[in-house]
């Protein structure tokens, strides 16, 4: 089927193939990011909790070569919300970007999330979320981003 108009002939089958190819390419990029071809944005800039107050950020946006297994970025803040609300927010945000929950944590107030690249020996990022309930009912939060390069 083709459309004719003002000096132009357009083949709809060709348009359909072009749309399919563009759509497939976009889907491949989206799937690639979810499956871990590229580190998600949160490996560089963790999401800031919506009602965070007194936010303090230390470190860099990128891991530093030769400084693996050290936090390259630390974010701390206070919130009037409960620790459970903070954990639920970060679990949802990070799982959306392909992070996985690590079941072993050194501290009951700490939740660890990990993200692996997709190569044969992938880089590994860790997102350590520590929440402490304060006497006033609010929560003190510390986030540490760590990186371990693949080999």
Structure in words:
With 151 residues, this protein is an alpha+beta fold. 25% of the residues lie in helices and 36% in strands. The protein has two helices and eight strands. It is globular, with a radius of gyration of 22 Å.
Low-confidence stretches: 5-36
Judged by helices, strands and strand pairing, the structural class is alpha+beta
User: End-to-end span in angstroms?
Assistant: 54 Å
- Helix proportion: 25-40%
Secondary-structure element pattern, one letter each: EEHEEHEEEE
Oligomeric state as shown: single chain
What percentage of the residues does DSSP assign to strands (E)?
A: 35-45%
- Write out the strand line-up for the largest beta sheet, numbering strands in chain order: 3-4-8-7-6-5
Return Rg in Å: 22 Å
Mean pLDDT: 77
Task: Tell me the number of strands.
Answer: 8
Largest sheet: 6 strands, antiparallel
- What's the helix count? 2
Shape, per Cα inertia axes: globular
């Amino acid at each position: 089927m083709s459309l004719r108009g003002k000096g132009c002939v357009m083949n709809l089958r060709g348009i359909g193939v072009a749309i399919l190819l563009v759509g497939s390419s976009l889907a491949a990029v989206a799937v690639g990011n979810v499956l871990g071809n590229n580190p998600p944005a949160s490996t560089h800039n963790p999401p800031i909790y919506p009602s965070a107050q007194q936010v303090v950020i230390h470190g860099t946006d990128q891991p530093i070569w030769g400084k693996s297994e050290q936090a390259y970025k630390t974010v701390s803040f206070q919130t009037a919300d409960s620790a459970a609300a903070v954990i639920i927010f970060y679990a949802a945000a990070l799982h959306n970007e392909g992070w996985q929950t690590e079941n072993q944590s050194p501290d009951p107030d700490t939740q660890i999330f990990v993200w692996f690249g997709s190569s044969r020996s992938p880089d590994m990022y860790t997102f350590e979320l520590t929440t402490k309930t304060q006497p006033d009912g609010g929560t003190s939060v510390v986030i540490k981003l760590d990186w371990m390069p693949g080999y």
